Automatic annotation (TrEMBL):
<dbReference type="InterPro" id="IPR000462">
    <property type="entry name" value="CDP-OH_P_trans"/>
</dbReference>
<feature type="transmembrane region" description="Helical">
    <location>
        <begin position="80"/>
        <end position="103"/>
    </location>
</feature>
<protein>
    <submittedName>
        <fullName>Inner membrane protein YnjF</fullName>
    </submittedName>
</protein>
<feature type="transmembrane region" description="Helical">
    <location>
        <begin position="109"/>
        <end position="132"/>
    </location>
</feature>
<keyword id="KW-0472">Membrane</keyword>
<dbReference type="GO" id="GO:0016780">
    <property type="term" value="F:phosphotransferase activity, for other substituted phosphate groups"/>
</dbReference>
<dbReference type="InterPro" id="IPR043130">
    <property type="entry name" value="CDP-OH_PTrfase_TM_dom"/>
</dbReference>
<dbReference type="GO" id="GO:0008654">
    <property type="term" value="P:phospholipid biosynthetic process"/>
</dbReference>
<feature type="transmembrane region" description="Helical">
    <location>
        <begin position="33"/>
        <end position="59"/>
    </location>
</feature>
<keyword id="KW-1133">Transmembrane helix</keyword>
<comment type="similarity">
    <text>Belongs to the CDP-alcohol phosphatidyltransferase class-I family.</text>
</comment>
<keyword id="KW-0808">Transferase</keyword>
<keyword id="KW-0812">Transmembrane</keyword>
<dbReference type="InterPro" id="IPR048254">
    <property type="entry name" value="CDP_ALCOHOL_P_TRANSF_CS"/>
</dbReference>
<dbReference type="GO" id="GO:0016020">
    <property type="term" value="C:membrane"/>
</dbReference>
<dbReference type="Pfam" id="PF01066">
    <property type="entry name" value="CDP-OH_P_transf"/>
</dbReference>
Length: 205
């Protein structure tokens, strides 16, 4: 819901930095992998009881996630780069909730499992929509220039980052926050299903 607005704020500085890095030979795929590594470091720190400190690599990983596209646009965009980016994103999104379950299994396991289930549903609705949009030749740049179609929704990347920050700031509230965010993920995916039914039941021209 907030990605389009956030993009207007973060794209100019990211694009400028992306051009600088690309000129120095930094690759978009390399930035993507650095972002994933930072995200995994954040998850490991959470798992051992350092959620506040984990905010540093967590936020750095999300900056890298936005920066890889800027580097690609300044050098060379590839379909594999988009594929690698989305795969690393999904691994990161699963690693953070898993880390909180490891941190306190008795308090967080059930809520964490529910949250991950909601991520599966939301992620599947997102990727399925992207596949059909590609088949229909639909395009959008509302969430920035992407390698695949990014359908909007109640919850998007920006909201997920804010959610992860809240988890790190209030780790003892993980279960409550996970149930709330998981329900919102289910709502997002359900609304996307209705949107897909409206768009993709129409005959192609």
């Amino acid at each position: 819901m907030l990605d389009a607005t956030a993009r207007k704020l973060i794209d100019p500085p990211l694009n400028a930095l992306g051009k600088t890095l690309a000129a120095r030979g930094v690759t978009a795929d390399g930035v993507t992998l650095v972002g994933l590594a930072l995200g995994i470091v954040a998850a490991m720190m959470i798992a051992v009881g350092l959620p506040l400190i984990a905010l540093v690599p967590l936020l750095a990983s999300r900056i890298a996630d936005g920066l890889d596209g800027a580097v690609a646009r300044a050098s060379k965009t590839t379909d594999f780069g988009g594929y690698l980016d989305i795969a690393c994103d999904f691994l990161f999104y699963g690693a953070i909730p898993f880390a909180f379950v490891v941190l306190d299994p008795s308090a967080n396991a059930i809520a964490g499992a529910f949250l991950l289930m909601s991520f599966y549903f939301n992620g599947t609705s997102f990727l399925g929509y992207a596949i059909l949009a590609e088949k229909r030749g639909l395009e959008t740049s509302a969430q920035g220039v992407k390698s695949l179609y990014f359908s909007n929704g109640l919850l998007e990347g920006t909201e997920t980052i804010v959610f992860f920050v809240l988890l790190c700031l209030f780790p003892t509230s993980f279960a409550v926050l996970a149930w709330i965010f998981g329900l919102l993920c289910f709502a997002t995916a359900t609304l996307r299903l209705f949107a897909a039914r409206r768009v993709f039941t129409m005959k192609e021209d």
